Amino acid sequence: MNRAQTENKASPETKSGEAAVEINDLKKSFGTQEVLKNVSLRLLKGENLVVLGRSGMGKSVLAKCIVRLLNPDSGTIKVFGENVGELNRHGLSELRKKIGFLFQSGALYDSMTVRQNLEFPLRRIKKDLSKKEIDEKIMKVLEDVGLPDALNKMPSQLSGGMRKRISVARTIILDPMLMLYDEPTTGLDPATSDEISALIDDIQRKLKTSSLIITHDIECARATADRVIMLHDGEVHLEGKLEAFEKSADPLIVSFFKSSHGQSHK
Known about the structure:
9 helices, alpha/beta, Rossmann fold, six-stranded mixed beta sheet, four-stranded antiparallel beta sheet, 2 domains, 10 strands
């Protein structure tokens, strides 16, 4: 079994070392397949933490356990100090309001305009907002993602990168404290992938969010990461700054970076 090796844990932006997410000894199996084995990690407040790994290594399962879309078999997950596994339905609902989850598909409602797609979560969650407040929030998030002119367009009129940006806007419109990105650049061309990576970094700086970015895209990690964790065979294989990964002589790390080079956006 591989033991986690730790390099410089905290980035300059996270001097307090206070955890937004703290995971200890997390295990999750599906039948006889152990997907997560004793995974422990800390995401610090204000930090971009990238979780790298090949497909099937449990990265997306980890994210779904954090918001309890999946229940782990054992271990603990604390988000902003709250034990996610112990929350009742109301408590879980309240916690999820603080979390933005951008799924890999980032699907928009095709029958709704961009404005309607952005209004939908506001009307469902922030029911006390006036029409003026809703309009102001919609325009602000469109400015934040660089698409103020997309307000009345339909999703079918948008490029893949623009749809991803609107998906990000729909996520941040609820003012999340924590962002979970699941393969945010998958299926995008290299130039658009770079734009989305820059946007993730920009959102973190503007909104002071804590972000967990799940990806196998080295260029995305390079653009966004304060710190990196690699999952392999259901365990944390290496943890530290990206520079430590790029200089590592570990055959598994070398192989991952070599196979990912030039294929990050495929």
